[in-house]
Design brief:
Number of helices: 10
Helix content: over 70%
Radius of gyration: 19 Å
Number of strands: 2
Strand order of the largest sheet: 1-2
Shape: globular
Length: 272
C-alpha cells in the first residue's frame, strides 16, 4: 500500500499554506493520535492511562519547538528541554505503574513500553518541526516527503512486478529485496526531481546523500512498525483513516527519515 494517501497530502498543504503554527498544531495532533495508537496496541488493558499518556506525550513537540517562535531561544537551548521533559514523563509513568500494576511480572514491560512510546512517536516527529525551522526549511520538508513517497511508490510497484527474494519475511512477508532496491532508486530519482523543480540549491552530492540517508531510513521505519504490529498481534495500527489503517501506518517511514533529514540539513547544508 502506498504511504501517505491522506496524511502526507495534509502535511504538504500545511507546509505550503498553513505557516509554522498550524504546521506545529498538525504535528502535535499527529503525535497524540500516533501515540494513542501505539499505546492501544502495546497496552490494550490500560485504557485510561493510554488516553492520559497520549495527551501528555503527544504534546512533546509543542514544548520542544514553540519556544523558537517568537522569543528567539536558540535551537540548542530548545533541544535541551528534551531531557527534563522526557525525564518527568518517564518518572510519572514509572510511578503510575508502581502503584497500579495488576501483575508484577508485567510491570517492567509496561514501564518500558510507556517510555518507548515517547521516544518513538513525539520525539521523532519533533524533527519535522526542527527541519521546518532551518534555512530552506519548507524545501527540506518537501524533499523529505518526495524522497519517502517516491521510494515507497517505487518499492511497491517494483516489488509487485519483479519481487522474488524475500527481504525480511518474519517481519514483513510481502517485502522483497527487489522492491527495496527499487525503492532506493525511486528515492534517488525523487531527490533529483526536487532539485530540478523546487530546490535548485541542492548539489548533486546533496541529492545522493539525502536519498541514500532518508530512503533506507524510511524503509527501516516501515519495517520497524511492521515488527511492532506483529509483536502486538494486530494488522493495522488503527482505523482512523478508512481503508488505509492508522496514523502510524501512514507515518512509519517519516518517523525514521525525519531525523536523518534534519541532521543532514543542519550539519552539512544550513551553514553554507
Amino acid at each position: 500500500m502506498i504511504t501517505g494517501a491522506v496524511v502526507l497530502p495534509l502535511l504538504i498543504l500545511l507546509v505550503l499554506k498553513g505557516g509554522i503554527f498550524l504546521f506545529t498544531a498538525l504535528i502535535v495532533l499527529l503525535s497524540v493520535l500516533g501515540l494513542w495508537e501505539f499505546y492501544r496496541m502495546a497496552l490494550p488493558e490500560r485504557t485510561g492511562d493510554v488516553i492520559v499518556a497520549s495527551l501528555a506525550g503527544g504534546s512533546i513537540p509543542l514544548f520542544l519547538f514553540l519556544p523558537l517562535h517568537p522569543v528567539g531561544i536558540s535551537q540548542p537551548a530548545v533541544h535541551g528541554l528534551a531531557v527534563p521533559l522526557l525525564t518527568a514523563l518517564f518518572i510519572a509513568c514509572a510511578l503510575r505503574v508502581l502503584f497500579s500494576f495488576r501483575d508484577i511480572r508485567h510491570a517492567a514491560g509496561e514501564v518500558a513500553l510507556l517510555g518507548a512510546g515517547f521516544l518513538y512517536v513525539p520525539l521523532l516527529l519533533t524533527h519535522l518541526l526542527w527541519l521546518r525551522s532551518l534555512p530552506h526549511g519548507i524545501d527540506w520538508v518537501f524533499l523529505l516527503l518526495v524522497i519517502v513517497m517516491a521510494g515507497d511508490t517505487a518499492a511497491y510497484y517494483v516489488g509487485s512486478s519483479l519481487g522474488k527474494r524475500k527481504l525480511y519475511p518474519v517481519v514483513s512477508p510481502n517485502k522483497s529485496v527487489e522492491g527495496a532496491l527499487g525503492g532506493l532508486c525511486g528515492s534517488i530519482v525523487g531527490a533529483f526531481i526536487a532539485k530540478a523543480t523546487f530546490f535548485p540549491e541542492l548539489t548533486v552530492g546533496d541529492c545522493l546523500a539525502a536519498a541514500l540517508l532518508m530512503g533506507p531510513m524510511g524503509q527501516l521505519g516501515d519495517l520497524f512498525e511492521s515488527l511492532l504490529k506483529r509483536s502486538f498481534g494486530v494488522k493495522d495500527s488503527g482505523v482512523i483513516i478508512p481503508g488505509h489503517g492508522g496514523v502510524l501506518d501512514r507515518l512509519d517511514s517519516i518517523l525514521f527519515a525525519a531525523p536523518a533529514a534534519y541532521y543532514y540539513a543542519s550539519l552539512f547544508f544550513a551553514n553554507r
